[in-house]
Amino acid sequence: MFFAFLCIPFLKIRCIVSGKQGGFMKAFEELKTYLENQYQHPCIDPESGIDPELLKTQIFEYWRTHRDEPLITVRAKSLARLMRETRIGVDPLDRFADQMNGGIFYELREEIKKDAYSVFSQEFWRGVSEYWETGTFMSWLDISHTAPDWASILRLGAPGLLARAEGARKEAKTEKERVFCDAAICVLEAFLELLRRFAAQAEKVNAPDVAEVFHALTERPPQTFREALQLAIVYDRCQEIEGEPLRSQGHFDRLFWPFYRRDLEQGVLTREEAKELLKFMWTKIYAQMNPNGKNFCFGGLAAPGVDACNDLTKLCFEVHFELNRINPKLSFRVHKNTPDAMLRQVTDSVRSGRTAVVFSNDDLAFEMLRRRGKAEEDIYNYTLIGCYEPAILGREMCCSMSAWGSMVKPFEAVFNNGCAFTGERLGPECALPANYAEFEAEYFRQLDHELVTAMERTKVFERLWDKVNPSPLLSSTMPDCMASRRDVSDAGTRYNTSGVMVAGLGTVVDSLAAVRMLVDERKLCTVAELAEILRNDWKDAEHLRLFALKRAPKWGNGDARADELGTKLMTFVCSRINHTPNARGGTFQTGEWSIDHNFTFGHKTAATPDGRHAGDPFSRNTGASIGMEKHGVTALLNSAVKFDQAECPDGAVLDVMLHPSAVSGSDGADVIAGLVRSYFAAGGLMIQFNILNAEDLRKAQEDPEKYDDVQVRVCGWNNKFVNLSHEEQNAFIAQAEAQQ
């Protein structure tokens, strides 16, 4: 029919409706490029729903005229209306359907947020802006690092989730509980209706296999692999429309294994056909072009002594290898008894340059989670949300990036009476230190002020969560929310934690070591003289800068003098953050990672005592300063494990760069596997790799089209090297040169 061809105006290809008879493999290979751009040419049927602008007007008008109702009710009814009336589309060339006009709900969320935040004074907002603009810290309401209870979604299906919500409604004892349950029922009824609409739309465009899947999902929980994948895809879409970016697909090999195994045993699918289904699904995630990616977790212990790896684990890493894409990103949980063959398959993928993988240490993570008071039965269900932030799937709202701060910025406050060199007040007034001991003490005092202020400001935002983004759809999947009859915005989950990410470990350690050497040990300058030198970005003091850069101890090189400072710094930071109560009935927790904010903060920070120029990036994550890894990978790993990484419940990740020649040949995968095992045995929590050659990276700068397939592990996600800024490219080149 004509509508179907609107989706593919420039593509000449046969439409394969059946998923059998050898059609799957050929279909995906023929469709690959088309599917990678599927959201650029959506198959939205204009006859399937209301005009987007009209629907937007109606939803906004409903919100404006019902402000006397609980916000969770208004949001539930608005989301339900969108799921029932927005235009949708089914592409008959695709194995799955999820296309719908949902962007209008984002605009409503922003209006609601603006309305809620109007209670803040101009002075409060000036403070938020000033701390961020000076590169000190940012605090906010983090609802962008979430995962639903995938186990409930797949076990109960849409009808079962609705039945559970209706059961909770019967147990409600207060009006607030009844309001919450009614909101959950409202969105789940609409979600079921959306599934019916997709079934009808699939029939309309002559996609009977897609229609069959959706009809089944309206009646019962998923039973086949394809049904389970389709339910996950549509739920993901709807939660993101509701307003909570879905950053983890959970323990994918555990969750989807029963469906996969049953299909193979009953002859519903072959292994190759299951692989093709995964390629269709993962291509959707890639085509969404989310720069931060979506995390799929694999491996680890499912219970004491029970390894979770299975044939689906192997299949997924085969798909990862064959697609060779930057997204989705994968996390692989490792324990001391992880099968060598499985670990080798994963590391072989990394060795080949497919580096969108982070490894997590189960043995240390379990100890870390126990220290945080997590129940023994829950710790085996930790997954990585966002980049590499551990959380108990289905039991925890980790809000892992509630605040992110620079551990480097307090240096300016020490040198300038509590102010930035640009004059803004950062911390308490202070006299200029006379020696290193006074300098270090004042640095920790200024850092303490920054951390406390960041957490206090975060709590201000957290207290408004239920007035900004109550989340009935997400909450409806959470067993604790339904048992307590409380929304996630009302601390309905068992664990409610708030992450504070701290950036610049290597830069801080190197700077403290440089001050000690320049001022106390070599007496090359006073603290006052160093303050003026840094204020002027090392102008007329290049000899001193080079001394600090090349002679002072450096973090990440196995130097005990630097490692002692790093341990002292992280012990202080973790003790200050961990266990501090948040405003959601839980606690704050430390994350020792920077993602790409080592550049963001670096741009806004003056020169530092380690020889870094003003505006240059900081060190990344738990690693050394850029270009300062001078003694090899073993020294880097030995430094990183000097502090207790089990005190970083929001994650701590080390980046390792290897030259391709170091991992070439049949032994290359074993080299990486050995590094993972050694690092974890020594006390490392997480590790990720780049396999890069400085010469090739320079060529890629000069001829980007020829090197379009070179990908790099930027931080908690991958990107194509040619898509990075010139500054970021140079940072990777400098790190690669240091390794060579």
Q: How is this structure best described in words?
A:
With 740 residues, the chain is α/β, with parallel strands linked by helices. The chain has a domain at 403-650. Helix content is 52%, strand content 10%. The chain has 30 helices and 20 strands. The strands form 7 sheets. Strands 4-5-8-9-18-17 form a 6-stranded mixed beta sheet. A 4-stranded mixed beta sheet has the order 3-13-15-16. Strands 1-2 form a two-stranded antiparallel sheet. α22 (505-521) crosses α24. The longest helix is centred in the N-terminal third of the chain and has 30 residues, at 175-204. It is globular and about 80 Å long.
Summarize the SSE layout with pairings.
Blueprint: H1 2-6, H2 23-36, H3 52-65, H4 71-85, E1 88-89, E2 99-100, H5 103-117, H6 122-133, E3 137-139, H7 150-171, H8 175-204, H9 208-219, H10 225-242, E4 248-251, H11 252-266, H12 271-287, E5 295-299, E6 301-303, E7 306-307, H13 311-323, E8 329-334, H14 340-351, E9 357-361, H15 362-371, H16 376-379, E10 382-385, E11 389-392, E12 396-397, E13 403-406, H17 410-415, H18 436-462, H19 465-468, H20 472-477, H21 479-484, E14 495-496, E15 498-503, H22 505-521, H23 527-535, H24 542-551, H25 560-577, E16 588-591, H26 597-603, H27 632-640, E17 653-658, H28 668-682, E18 686-691, H29 694-702, E19 711-713, E20 718-720, H30 726-739
Parallel strand pairs: 4-5, 5-8, 8-9, 12-14, 13-15, 15-16, 17-18
Antiparallel strand pairs: 1-2, 3-13, 6-7, 9-18, 10-11, 19-20
Helix pairs in contact: 2-12, 3-4, 4-8, 7-8, 8-9, 9-10, 10-11, 10-12, 11-13, 12-13, 13-14, 14-28, 18-22, 18-25, 22-24, 22-25, 29-30
